[in-house]
Amino acid sequence: MKGEMISNISHDLRTLLTSLIGYADLLENKLHSNVEECEHYICVLRRKSNELKN
């Protein structure tokens, strides 16, 4: 039971961190192009970071 809970929490954290890293990579690659697209990635990064915090 405890092991399953830890496994689920670990999976959720890895999923969110993978998402954050992916959006950070996209933002880095698009930094000198479309400003609106970069702003979107920043919003997603902020939302995913808040999910980790809460």
From TrEMBL:
- Top-level lineage group: Bacteria
UniProt EC number: 2.7.13.3
Question: Where in this chain does the record put each Signal transduction histidine kinase dimerisation/phosphoacceptor domain?
Answer: 1-42
**UniProt keyword terms in alphabetical order:** Kinase, Transferase, Two-component regulatory system
Q: Which CDD domains match?
A: HisKA
Write out the catalysed reaction.
ATP + protein L-histidine = ADP + protein N-phospho-L-histidine
Record's protein name: histidine kinase
Source organism of the structure: Bacillus clarus
